[in-house]
Amino acid sequence: MSAIRVNDFVVRFANVNGSGSASANQLFARAILRMGVPATPRNIFPSNIQGLPTWYEVRVSEAGHLGARGGTDLMVAMNPQTWDKDLAGITPGGYLFYDSTRPARHLREDVTVLGMPLTAMCNAEYQDPRQRQIFKNIMYVGALSALLDIDAAVVEQLIAEQFKAKEKLIAPNVHAMRLGRDYALANFACPLNLRVQRADKIGDRIFIDGNSAAGLGAVYGGATVCAWYPITPSTSLAEAFTRYCKRYRTEPETGRARYAIVQAEDELASIGMVIGASWNGARAFTATSGPGISLMQEFLGLAYFAEIPAVIFDVQRAGPSTGMPTRTQQCDVMACAYASHGDTKHVLLFPEDPRECFEFGAQAFDLADRLQTPVFVLLDLDIGMNERLCAPFAWDDSRRLDRGKVMTAAELEAGREFGRYLDVDHDGITYRTLPGTHPTKGAFFTRGTSRDEYARYTEEGSAYQRNMERLLRKFATAKQYVPRPVRRDAAEPTRFGAIYYGSTSPAMDEAATMLAAQGVALDLLRVRGFPFHDEVIDFVARHDKVFVVEQNRDAQMRTLLVNEGEIDPAKLIRVLHYDGTPITADFIAGAIADAADAAKIIPLRKAVP
Question: Smallest Cα–Cα separation from 373: which of 349, 399, 398?
């Protein structure tokens, strides 16, 4: 018999897409949170509408670990098609819960089997086929509440909240939950050695997905225009922005909408609309994923060269081409950093959790206006579409939008010299005017072709070169505006470090703790923006070797560090994960150990005196 594990295990649900299991699985995760125990759910779903396998994983961790762990302690196997794979993923000593209406195909001796005739029970209780399916899901949630010692009153309260708009559905769902719970109490030794015990570990944290947080951040950042084309996994970001605009950007007296949201015919049209709206003075954005970035390349080059603000939320998925549309990766870093033909460099932001999705979602619009350039906020599917605990959002009501260098009518009237591409402050950022600022003065014309400082067309090489060098100065200026990296040093001096970014953060934090327990000391640096702050390059310089942990095949962040920091590639050791699943702490710790061994880093475990 395995040891009792309280508030520290992984439950994985194997379902069929379209079976109505999503709401039941979410109910289970929220019940654990309601008991004060941190839980991190991840929805692993196919790219079709119905019929293929789907999984929902819930990591329960009173210690607060939010990254994927790897392995399953309790498998709720509701899909015969994936039986072999699901059974193989259970850790030794774990549990298999399944619908025993039909005999199991085969089992494992080191796994405890919990068979419950769910289909037979539903067939006896309900006549309607859809009710049989829906209530079967609620029944297994009830059974799990008994098996894991989850308070039934908590589950019932959540059901009441979920169906408060349709009160007639509350009683039937509670009844189905009770049927499952009563069966488990009567037929199994409840609770199992995996148990949920009330705690007070949630605090004031909120539970939200990154896409919703970014959509709200766009509202707070002053965005009034969204032009987008549906693409997984970014669609819910635009939908969230729409919901928040209806609530916060609609005049209560007249019902007039003070925003414009356009579903364009494709991604190319959407970024064109964003650039047009931004040129006119609106704060505008699009939400897309890798294939959309590919289509937007020419317009992104126009915005960079003509110096028009734009914000692009890129919720990354596995590529190239269609790739795996519903799997996560960090594989658009290079595509966004150097988007379009010719010499271009774009500002990138890398949020680690929903709170930073909100913060960076708002900050991106200030950056775009201040720098007069496209700004990319790089989420990924794991952080964008999955709910996660995070610190509450904070906002300073005294904060004002930073529109950057916009020349006013009064300044023009006073005779102040205006050149659209004239760098008077020597920071690479020029002054602009907005259409309608002054009836006769000011130049609203913007060129995407070679020009001089006064926006006059020219093919003179020296003028073109001055302009390109000024754009580099502007990119260097951007260092002071993008979010600074976050550094966490080991408890003891070490010659080795690790650089990571985005959704890798929770797994990296846990991996560092695991490695420290094994005597492996690592300094950590989380990159949050590009161009890189000087302290990023300094971090590499201060260590003999630095592991760069990322979720793509080609080590794209490492490539950026080598290119932009002129770093010796031999100092940067790749730690890469790119199978489409979220990176885990176990993988990082093991990969760092393997990479250290391959690189003959001896002795990694010995701290520097």
Answer: 349
52 HSE (CA, 13 A, CB side): 7
- Of the three residues 151, 167, 195, the one that is the final residue of a domain is 195
Residue 374 structural domain? 208-390
Q: How many CB atoms lie within 10 A of CB 528?
A: 23
What's the CA gap between 531 and 91, in Å, rounded?
A: 43
- Residue 400 included in any domain: no
In sign, the C-alpha dihedral spanning 96, 101, 107, 110 is: positive
Instruction: Classify residue 398: in a domain, yes or no.
Output: no
| 395-451 tens-digit pLDDT | 999 999 999 999 999 998 888 888 999 999 999 999 999 988 888 776 667 889 999
User: Is 151 found in the same domain as 34?
Assistant: yes
C-beta separation of 33 from 202 below 8 A? yes
Select from 585, 592, 514, 506 the least CA-distant residue to 69.
Answer: 585
Residue 140 lies in a domain: yes
Half-sphere CA count of 266, side-chain side, radius 13 A: 7
Sign, Cα dihedral of 321, 326, 328, 332 = positive
Q: Strand ranges (DSSP E) for 405-490?
A: 486-488
Residue 343 in tokens: 């010499």
The answer to whether the predicted template modeling score (pTM) of the entire model surpasses 0.90 is yes
Residue-wise burial string across 301-336, b where 16 or more C-beta atoms lie within 10 A, e elsewhere: bbbbbbbbbbbbbbbbbbbeeebebbbbbbbbbbbb
Tokens (6 digits) for 13: 């649900």
Q: Where are the beta strands (DSSP E) in 132-268?
A: 194-195, 206-209, 225-228, 260-263
Q: How many domains does the chain have?
A: 4
